[in-house]
Amino acid sequence: MSFTPHTDDDVARMLNALGLSSVDDLFSEVRAALPPGEVPELAGVGEFELRHQLWDIARLNGRPDQTLCFRGAGAYEHYIPAAIPQLLSRGEFSTAYTPYQAEVSQGTLQVMYEFQTMVCELLGMEVANASMYDGASALAEAALMAMRITGKHRLLVSEGLHPHWLQVVRTYAANVEADIVPVPLRDGLTSPDAIASALDDDTAAVLIQNPNVLGLIEPLREIGALLATHPALYIAAAYPISLGLLASPGEAGADIAVAEGQPLGIPLSYGGPYLGLFATKMEHIRQMPGRISGLAYDHAGRRGYVMTLQAREQHIRRERATSNICSNQMLCALAATVYLSLMGPGGFSAVAERSFAVAHQLADDLSRLRGCSLAFERPFFNEFVLKLPVPAEDIERELWNDGIVSGLPLGRWWPERRNQMLFCATEIITDAAIHRLVAAMEEALS
Amino acid sequence: MSAETVFERSHPGRGTPYVAQRGAPPASLDTIPRHALRARPPALPELTEGEVVRHYTNLSRKNWAVDVGFYPLGSCTMKYNPRLAEQIAAWPEFSAAHPLRPARAAQGLLRIMYETERMLAHLCGMERFTLQPAAGAQGELCGMLMIRSYHLQHGAHRNTVIVPDSAHGTNPATAALAGFKVVTCPSSAEGLVDLRALSKLANDDLAGIMLTNPNTLGLFERDIQQVCRIVHDAGGLAYYDGANFNALVGRFRPGDMGFDVVHLNLHKTFATPHGGGGPGSGPVGVTAQLEPYLPVPLIAKGPEEFELEENRPHTIGRLNAFAGSMLVVLRAYVYLRLLGTAGLRDVSGKAVLAANYLKQRLADTYAPSHPGRCMHEFVLSAEKQREESGVRALDIAKRLIDLGFHPPTMYFPLTVPEALMIEPTETEDLETLDAFADALLQIAREAKESPELLHDAPHNTPVGRLDEVAAAKNLNVRW
To answer: CA A256, CA A234: separation in Å to the nearest integer?
Structure first.
């Protein structure tokens, strides 16, 4: 296949204008500068042949119409209204670049502005950027930002944080002399007492995720009250759908709030592209990484939008920038903006309440299975840990034979939890789906 | 079309009920302590689906895009994005897969990732790739963290990274984020790395160099083997910023130039859509000596099936929660398979041909930063126009909008005054290239005859030039 439009005649005219006889002549200097090296040959394939091949490859992932998924752990399958992919497929959005020329980028810039507003509303914060790569890298950037603001190096990190997110924080902070101090959980929750005793004058920030990786609802406000009188910053990571029901980071007193925005209209996509939400207080806006769209006016007084406070960014500030981030996840941010516009306040809390209700139904049904019980008798949102009488990975294997992606076996992160599974349900799980899972679990356990 | 926000179009009580309540509110809601509940619901807009679709469709019409017209933004590679890739990325076998699925349930996904990695490794002359970085800048961070780990593993505390003065801003910002001290290397009069200056900077504190080749002036660093040798002899490593790989793809390999680490921008060279500023994808390739430091997870081919490799003792860690932007990688896979190596050679050939043709047509009117042949892009200076008629690169760019073109990259690289950086790409036909050249020549005439036409441009856009200074001063960043 080829997508180049030039006819032989066109090429001849262009070469002629340059006084050359072949396209290869354009590379003579390069060729002379390099040792001989052959690029291995790979044959091109026609469109319909490739599509046939991809049908076969796609089938290796199972049949989506017959697959059920009860897994969350940082990625959640919520309903995506059909209008979202339809709008995202508009080339005016998808094939534009960064809105460097504001006059011909008002669509993107206004979406950014609306997105920032909705992120502020969800997280209960004053200002938000136009998005980061994903929730985990947004959290890492938040930690670095807190270190810049406070000039301190100690990060107290709740062990309720998703282990992958903690790894990302460690990776980002590896070379800025961060001292990462894990705060252990007590019966599944971050203990405000443990935070209080770990806080000291060198602490830059406290990092909490709510609900935590075990699905449990953290004492977000209590920790906020504790930090209100301490110079360390409070960084709270949220699951955005839960915010239809649960206290926002802002309500709990957070200084920086982040979230994985994937549940807001973005498909699971085997891990990406996702969407990092990032918000803070107005007083910290100049330390915030990432693009920001702001309201502006032209000479005729017409309202428009521009990228603002660019002096924080790498293309101006170079090695003194607040971050090296250049792009945002604009098309994913558009998905989230359209999602929240479609849902509205009522629809949004309905998704949260229904996810909550379905997950509690599921927890009731699964904990009645022989040898199974909930690992924690504590409030949860839509994820819970189920104790099994057998290794969780055995159940995972059995269930996939029935086309069911089970809860996540927790032994992969904590060997002592090898008989435990983290289950998740959202509003799209029907009663029939729960019955199918329960029946398959019964069979696998027998 | 007004700039009214979605919030101003909201009417209380409107909406589309996608999700019904599940009977009566669940009694278990009582299990949540009051203090954990939200006090105030988020103030989201209330509109019907029809109103939402109309609002965002109208916003889309205020955007320029590759699908709308010519977009010669230098160093951004705004080429046509084939639609088969879009169609396949929407298949639920790929898009509905949970990232923590057991590997057995993701063999198709893993196979595509594995094969993409192998194809990229072949094209770059590298040993192995990670597909995890979410964008070029994150790929840079990945690469620089690996260089850091490599030196530490070899008992060396090397703190300096050399970045040419013509480099993208992300390079110095990344080096700083990875904990390095940034030293700028000046360009020679020819616009290339100054070997003498480089030799002076290459000492025993040198961790590495970050280089784009062709560089941001669109010039091939013909001394590249020597550049890498100087860096290697000093004990440093060479990092290839793949922003401009479109000039060479299918023909030449960074590995053959002497580079140790490479990042590619799938959204540039491999035709995945830019999305208005993302999502991109920035895979990173390394030579065998750096392979132990790649981030986890990696895609491995086991005896029976593909798997995600997590347990790697020397890894730099993890950059994102999951294995990478799979749906962007999938689009690049489709592009690579469709074109094959011959198609990619055609890409680089036509990209370089188009740039040289445009440069030739414009060089008498606008001063090129450097004479002679260019690669896939070139830089013109409007310094002459500024001196003669007070017209700046900015004015020329805005006037291009009136004439139906997206402007080139402006004021970059920083080493060229009044810079206009033009990258036509391989997917624009000759009539478009000629029309664009004609427009720039017309603007040069207008600059002399009626400069106010340029100062007031653009004339036909939804808004005129917006006051950025006032916007930054009277900050309004949310409704």
So the answer is: 6
